[in-house]
Write a structure and sequence with these properties.
227 residues, 5-stranded parallel beta sheet, two-stranded antiparallel ribbon, 7 helices
């Protein structure tokens, strides 16, 4: 049995994103598709004293057909601003002194302007913190063709996968008969019943960036990915 998960990259994603990666043997970053504005690609939520707040990487969208992996940052000092925002809102959390410097180094030493590359750097860093060892590859290395379903199936076959882990939103477009015809078992993620953790500024919110979990729970964070 070999489990494959395929997702577009997100900026400092929520814990459910890393739960999918954790359960897969191979995780495919699928960024050779259209960039969508006001989505999770370049932003996420953090907790603040006044409620959940968006933290957004400013990017340039030159045309509607622009791909995620073609999208670049449009403001030079975004990384410094984001780091200062995290300091302001998480500086007093229990594990900020331990994990803050790790994120600070990545933010302040950021050496790329491409959104996909930025997202991947954070995903890999967070995987290390959460002890997730899943192999990550870029979909472009697979040279995929066809429509949405055909590309997914081709990727899984090229990776010798037997199972595909998918988020529930994909039920609206996935052709289950096509997957069954290729003997690929689809496993749907269930984002219910995650345990709550110590979180600043109630009420509790599950749908914020995983950095909220890391700064509040530290090395214990990985326990909160398991239902």
């Amino acid at each position: 049995m070999k489990k494959v998960a395929i997702l577009q990259s997100n900026y400092i994603p929520w814990k459910g994103y890393f739960d999918i990666i954790r359960q897969a043997d191979i995780f495919v970053i699928y960024d050779e598709v259209q960039y969508t504005k006001n989505d999770w690609r370049n932003r996420n939520l953090i907790k603040t004293p006044t409620g959940n707040q968006w933290i957004t990487i400013p990017v340039s969208q030159k045309n509607l057909s622009q791909k995620i992996n073609e999208t670049e940052v449009s403001l030079k000092n975004w990384n410094i601003k984001h780091w200062n925002t995290l300091v302001a809102n998480y500086g007093k959390t229990s594990f900020f002194k331990e994990f803050g410097p790790i994120f600070k180094a990545l933010y302040l030493e950021m050496d790329t302007t491409f959104l996909s590359e930025i997202n991947l750097k954070f995903i890999k860093l967070i995987n290390e913190i959460l002890d997730i060892t899943t192999e990550i590859i870029d979909s472009t290395s697979l040279e995929l063709n066809g429509d949405k379903n055909e590309r997914l199936i081709e990727a899984i076959e090229k990776l010798n996968g037997t199972h595909y882990i998918s988020g529930p939103a994909a039920q609206s477009y996935m052709d289950m008969d096509a997957f069954a015809a290729k003997n690929i078992t689809v496993e749907w993620m269930d984002y219910q019943n995650y345990p709550e953790y110590h979180q600043q500024h109630p009420p509790f919110s599950h749908g914020v960036s995983v950095v909220d979990l890391i700064f509040n729970e530290g090395a214990n964070s990985k326990k909160f990915l398991i239902k």
